């Protein structure tokens, strides 16, 4: 996936954040394809052969979580999130940057930091126990699944910092 033309990241460090999220997006795309194929296999096995495996079903759940939790930062990067833009779309790029900067500082950063702080003990305990599925025949990887929570927050927080640099650039040279 390429960066949209309106994405102009000023510093190499922030370009690195954007590149990491773009690379992760490519992996998420592959994960999405695998998830669809596994879902198809589950349906074929269940209804065609009256066979089912809990581990296969859980793997789809794990991939689903991975796709969304890792893909959130990329969606933020390309401004693909849902927005109620009754007034926003009529604003100048500079005013849009102001709204985005304010939202990032007031909402995104505090929420991401809170998620990281609150989820760390939860995830650490899961790793300590090497938590596995409660289902017979399930995957023994619940601790990895739970690790997606702080990972999503860290990736989104880093992308928020990259976006802040972009918004500041828009203030410096953007249209009014």
Polypeptide structure, described:
With 176 residues, the chain is mostly helical. The chain has one domain. The chain is 74% helix and 0% strand. It contains four helices and no strands. It is elongated. The model is unreliable at 1-7 (pLDDT under 50).
Question: What keywords describe this structure?
Answer:
4 helices; mainly alpha; single chain; 176 residues
Radius of gyration, in angstroms, nearest whole number: 20 Å
* Biggest sheet overview: none
Number of strands: 0
Helix content: over 70%
Distance between the termini: 30 Å
N-to-C series of helices and strands: HHHH
How does the overall form come out from the CA principal axes? elongated
- Strand residue percentage: under 5%
Q: Counting H and I runs of at least 4 residues, what is the number of helices?
A: 4
**Unreliable segments of 5+ consecutive residues:** 1-7
Q: Average the pLDDT over all residues and give the rounded result.
A: 86
List the helices and strands and how they pair.
Layout: H1 12-49, H2 54-77, H3 93-129, H4 142-173
Helix pairs in contact: 1-2, 1-4, 2-4, 3-4
